[in-house]
Amino acid sequence: MDRAVGIDLGTTYSLVAVMDGESPRVIADASGNKLLPSVVAVDQKGSLVIGDEAKKYRVSNARQTVSSVKRLMGKGGREIVPEAQYIAAPLDVSDEKIVKVKLGNWEWTPAEISALILRELKQRAEKDLGREVKKVVITVPAYFNDSQRQATKDAGRIAGLEVIRIINEPTAASLAYGLEKKKQGLIAVYDFGGGTLDVSILKLKDGIFEVLATCGNTHLGGDDLDWALARFLLKEIEARFGSKPDQANAIQTVVDACEQAKRRLSTENEITLDIRLSDPEIDYRRKITRQEFEARIGPIVEKTVEPCLSALKDAKLKPEEIDEVILVGGSTRVPLVRATVERVFGKKPHSELDPDEVVALGAAVQADVLTGRMKDILLLDVAPLSLGIESFGGIVSRIIRRNTTIPVQATDHFTTAVDGQTSVDIHIVQGERGLVRDCRSLGRFRLKIPPMPAGFARIEVTFIVDENGILKVRARDLRAGTEESIQVKPSYGLTDEQVEKMLEDSLRFEKQDEEVRKLVEVRNHAQFIINGAKRALVQGRELIGNEESGKIEAALKILEKACEGEDAGLIWKTLNEFGEISNHLAKILMDEALREALARKKEGVFKNPVQSGS
Amino acid sequence: MSVTAEKCWACSKDFPGGHFCPHCRKIQPLRGGENYFDFMGIPRRLELDPDLLQTRFYALSRQFHPDFYQGKSAEEKKISLDRASFLNKAYQTLREPESRAAYLFDLEAIPSGQDAKASPDLLSKVFEMQELAAEAKDNGSDMNKAGAKLGPIEADLKNCLGDCERQMRVLFSEWDSEASAYSENNGERKNTVAGKIRRLINDKRYIEETLRAVTQTSGTRGDR
User: Fold this and answer.
1) Would you state the pLDDT for residue B117?
2) If you measure CA to CA, which chain B residue comes closest to A376?
C-alpha cells in the first residue's frame, strides 16, 4: 500500500508529519518552518495566499483574511454566533445548513478553505518525499461532533486526498508519546489548542492504546486567552484615548499583540506592550505583568477544569490513579494553564515532546499502522458524544452512549403513535441533553410504512459508528416484512455531489495555480533574455550597425510590454519572435567571443570559467 | 454449536465455528445467536477475573479491528467492522457486574419476578435525603442547617451502596456454584438467587441516582 502522511489541521497552525524509519518526523518547508499558519488570504493582485504569506495580510487587510476557520467546520449559518468574532472576513450566515466565508470574489465553505491548507501541506510533503502523497490521516479534536468530522473528511477530499482515517487529537498525542517512551499505565492528555479543549484518559498496555473516556469543549481555546486580554486592552484604549478602535484591522492588531504578549509572558514576568493603530492614530504603550495577564485569563483557564473531572468520572478513576499527564497544544505553555493541570491531577505534567508537534507526530504513526507498516500498535478510541433519535414529545431516545468504544453498532425498536400512519420520521441527534432541542441535529429521514393501527409497527433503527467515529443509520420496518432499509449519511449541509463539485473547482484552482506558475517561469526567462540582449547590444552595436540595432531595440520594447501582461502564451510568442530578430546579433557575438578565446588560448591566458545557464 | 455444517464464505469449505476459517484463515461473518461469553472465550460466570477479560478483549481487538483490514476486500472490511463492534459491545457488557448479571440472566431465560421493588428501609432514606436536598436548594438561608443534616444521611447512603456491592459479590459466587452444579432441579434456587441479585442491582442504581442528584445540587451551591 502507498505510504500515508499525518496532518494536524489546527485552528491556528497546521503541520504534516511522516514516519522516518522507527520514529515520526514533522516536515518543514523550504525555509525550515514546521508550522503552517492556518490562514488564507487574498493579496492585492487578487490571488490566494496561504500560511505565513497570508498572515501578513491579517492586519493590513483583515477583511480579506480567514484564520481560525476550524471553528466554523461543520457549522450551520445559525450556529456560528459565538465563533463569528474570531473571523475577520465577512461571513454569509443566510444558509441555515452551512456557513460560508466571503473571500475575494467567492463564497467559500469552511471545508474549501481548509482544503487549501491541506493542499499546501500535501505539496510540502511531496516536495520533501519526492513522490506523490495521496493518503492521509487527519486529526480532529476528540470532542468534534459528527458534522465537524464529516466536514474535515470533505476538506481532505476537496484537497485531492484520500482520508484513510480521522483520528482524535489527544489520542494521536498519546500515540506519539507512548511510542517514544514505551509507556504502560493510565495517562491523561490535556489538549488545549487554538480553538478547542480536549481531555482524554487512556490505558496503555503492550501497544494497545485504549481510550477510557474523553471530554471537552469545542468553544474554548488559546484564541480565547488572546481575546480575554484584547477585550480588556480595547476598553483601556477607549478610556485613555476617547475613541474606540472598532475597525477589523485595528482589532486584529490588538489581538495579535495579545497573542505575542501571551507567548512572552510564558517565560517573562513583565513585558511592555507597544500597539500602534492608525485611523485614529493611537500609540498605546503599557507594561503588563504575568499576574495581570493571569487575572484576565483566569476564568477561562478555570473552565478547563470541569472537562478534566468529567473525563475522570466517566473513566471511573480518581486523579491520583493517573500515572502521567501529557500536555498538548501551544496554550499549555502558559504557566497558569500548567499550574491548573498540576492542581487537578496532583502531579507535574509532561511536555518533553513539543506540544505543537505531538499531534501531527501521532497522526504519522497511525498512518503507518493503517498502511500495514506498524503492526504492534492498536488504538481503541471512543465515541465522544451520545447518539440517539427523537422520540415522542421531543425526548431523546439514546442509542449509543458517549465514551463507548468504536466501532460500535446498536439497535433499538420503535413504533407508531397514530393510527394509519404511512411514514415514520427518523430524526438523528447528538449530545448529552435529554431534550432534542438542546442536542445537535445530525439529520433526518423518512421511512415509508404500510398503514397500521398505532403501536403496531415495529421499526428497527440501527446506528453504526465506524472506526472514524462517523455515524451511519439504518431503519427497517420489521412488521411489514419488507427488507426496505435506508442508509443515511447524516449531513451538515454538503451533499456528496457538492463535495465532488468542490473537488472539481479546487482542481480548477490547481490549474489556475499552475498557470500562475507558468507565467512566473516565462517572465523570469524573458527577463533573463532581455538583460542578456541589453548587454549584447552594448557590445555588438558596432558589429551590426544602427539599422539592425534599432530593430532589436523595438522588438525588446514589445517583449518588455508583453511581460507586463498576464498572458504567458503571448510572452512565449514574443520571446520567439525576439529570438529570430536577435539571432544574427547572438551569432556574431558568439563568433567574436570564439575568436577572442582562440586568440587567448594561443597566448596561454585563461580566465576563470563562467557558469552558464541561469 | 450448530448442527448443520456451515461453509466458509471465502473458500466454501466446512466451517466448524470460531472467528476465522481454519482452511483459508479468512475472517468469518457473525452468524447470529453468538453470546458474549463464548465469543470472548470467557467462562459463563458472574464472578469474572477483570484482567482475563481485558486480556481477551485486547487479543481479539488485534484480530478484528478495522485498522488491520485497510488493504483487504470490501467484504472482509465489513466483517471486521461487524466483529469489532460485537466485541466492543461484549466487553462493555461483561465488564460491569450489573450489566453482566442482567445479560447472563437474559441468556439463561430467568423469569423476571416481583423482585424489582426497593426495600422500604432504603426508600425512606432516599426520600428523606431528597427532601433535605430540595430544602437546601430552595432556601438559601437555611442551607447550612439542611446541609448539616444532609451530610450524615449522604454517608449513610454511601454505606448502603457498599453493602449492596458486598452482598452482590456473595450472591455472584452463590449463583456460580449453583450454575456449575448441573443439577436438574436447581432451577428454582437459581431463580431465587437471580431475583436477589436483580433487586440489589435496582437498589444500587437507585442510590447512585439519588447521590448523583444531590451532589449536583450541592455542586451548584458551591459554584455560586
Assistant:
1) 63
2) B62
Set of chain B residues whose Cβ sits within 8 Å of the Cβ of A372:
68, 70-71
Q: Three-class SS of residue A5?
A: strand
Would you state the pLDDT for residue A1? 59
CA A548 to chain centre: 58
Contact A378 B65 (CB under 8 A): yes
Q: Compute the radius of gyration of chain A from its Cα atoms.
A: 30
In a domain, B207, yes or no: yes
* Portion of chain B with pLDDT greater than 90, in percent: 41
H helices of A281-407, in order, are: 290-302, 305-314, 335-345, 358-370
Helix, strand, or coil (residue B1): coil
Q: What is the pLDDT of residue B147?
A: 66
- Residue B71 distance to chain A (closest CA, Å): 7
The answer as to whether B101 is a domain residue is no
Beta bridge partners of A390: A396
Split at pLDDT 50, 70, 90, the class of A538 is: confident
Identity of the residue in A210, A375, A407 whose CB atom sits nearest the CB atom of B84: A407
> A283-287, A520-524, B35-39: lowest mean pLDDT where?
A520-524
Chain A: give the shortest CA distance to residue B59, in Å.
Answer: 10
Q: Is residue B109 part of a domain?
A: no
Structural domains of chain A, with CATH: 4-220+303-380 (3.30.420.40), 222-301 (3.90.640.10), 385-493 (2.60.34.10), 498-603 (1.20.1270.10)
**CB-CB under 8 Å, B67 with A379:** yes
Helix (H) or strand (E) holding A81: helix A81-84
Instruction: Assess whether B135 and B71 both reside in one domain.
Output: no
The minimal CB distance from A369 to the residues B54, B67, B84 is found for: B67
In angstroms, the CA A259 to CA A257 distance is 5
| Shortest alpha-carbon distance between residue B67 and chain A (Å) | 6
- Whether A29 is catalytic is no
The pTM of the full predicted model, rounded to 2 decimals, is 0.80
- Which of A83, A191, A381, A548 is an active site residue? A191
Residue B82's domain spans which residues?
6-95
B80 lies in the same domain as B135: no
Cα dihedral across residues A173, A176, A177, A183: positive or negative: positive
Residue of A1, A164, A407 with shortest CB distance to B81? A407
What distances in angstroms separate CA A312 from CA A361, A420, A485, one per listed residue? 26, 48, 39
Residues A1, B91: C-beta atoms closer than 8 Å: no
Assess whether B36 and B129 both reside in one domain. no
Query: For residue B198, is it within any domain?
Result: yes
Cα(A346)–Cα(A348) distance, rounded to whole angstroms? 7
